[in-house]
Specification:
By secondary structure, the protein is mostly helical. It has a domain at 2-7 and 25-66. The chain is 79% helix and 0% strand. The chain has three helices and no strands. The chain has helices at residues 2-12, 20-44, 47-68. The longest helix has 25 residues, at 20-44. The relative contact order is 0.18.
Length: 73
């Protein structure tokens, strides 16, 4: 599946030296990947797809954490 290969490539990317616009673009790409994989998961209920979605979501959370900053409280 091309979608799974793209997701694996996304998870393997380095986050160092990313500009803010690169982080925004990566966050949007992650969201698009998650939604696409979720549509397939709804039909097949394949646990492998769920694992891929979890890995992409972890990476997305790290990117958004860096974008939004750490809460003060």
């Amino acid at each position: 599946m091309d979608l799974l290969e793209h997701a694996d490539e996304f998870v393997g990317r380095k986050m160092s030296n990313m500009s803010t616009s690169d982080r925004v673009e990566a966050s949007r790409e992650a969201k698009k990947l998650i939604l696409s994989i979720n549509e397939i998961y709804k039909e097949t209920k394949d646990s492998n797809l769920m694992d891929v979605m979890k890995r992409v979501t972890e990476k997305k959370k790290k990117i958004e954490k860096r974008l939004n900053g750490v809460p003060l409280v």
